[in-house]
Design a protein that fits this description.
The protein is α+β, with helices and mostly antiparallel strands. The protein has a domain of about 80 residues: Glutaredoxin. Helix content is about 30%, strand content about 10%. The chain has a 4-stranded mixed sheet with strand order 2-1-3-4, sandwiched between helices. It is elongated. The protein starts with a strand and ends in a 10-residue tail after the last helix.
């Protein structure tokens, strides 16, 4: 198997891929596109004009060729036929706590009950809570709704005083008809 990896010095995915290949003891050839512009041209051809790194060309012994763009461990495991190596288990001297089992809680089914006793009023010093308390006590003692608020008469702005002559012309007198 031949593995060629096109990389750059600062690419974190390139670093992760190289660490992955070393962890699995896989030989590879690194071609840094920053140090050799011919490698850049090769990478663009191999990667079908993919302009990111890493680009990896894997030629297997059976003649199949795979080109991987970027790096994900799962994709490499699939192409290389590898299984993810489990992380090392903790040392025997480190005790592992037993798993905690949490029983699921089931909400009780609400039962149909008779009307409940009145709710005691809330006592608080804030004006809003005082109003709420008063409303609650009224609701608890009387089931009739409170009367609507009294209508407020509209206020008209004061009019400048007019002379008697203007007043008569603007507001003609209304005749008084006798009642029949």
């Amino acid at each position: 198997m031949k593995i060629v990896v096109y990389t750059t010095s600062t690419c974190e995915f390139s670093k992760q891929e190289k660490a992955y290949l070393q962890k699995h003891n896989l030989q590879f050839e690194e071609r840094n596109i920053e140090t050799n512009k011919d490698f850049l041209a090769e990478m663009m051809t191999v990667g079908n004009n993919f302009a990111g790194t890493p680009v990896t060309k894997i030629e297997k012994d059976d003649g199949t060729i795979s080109v991987l763009k970027g790096f994900t461990e799962e994709e490499f495991n699939n192409v290389l036929g590898l299984e993810a190596k489990p992380e090392p288990s903790p040392s025997p001297t480190t005790p592992t706590p037993p798993p905690v089992t949490v029983e699921p809680t089931v909400a009780p089914t609400p039962a149909v009950t008779a009307p409940q006793a009145p709710v005691p009023p809330v006592v608080d010093d804030t004006p809003l809570n005082g109003v709420m308390s008063k409303l609650q006590s009224q609701m608890n003692t009387d089931s009739t709704p409170p009367p609507p608020p009294a209508p407020v008469a509209p206020t008209n702005p004061p009019q400048p005083e007019a002379s008697a002559q203007e007043n008569t012309a603007a507001n003609p007198a209304i005749p008084d008809f006798p009642a029949k």
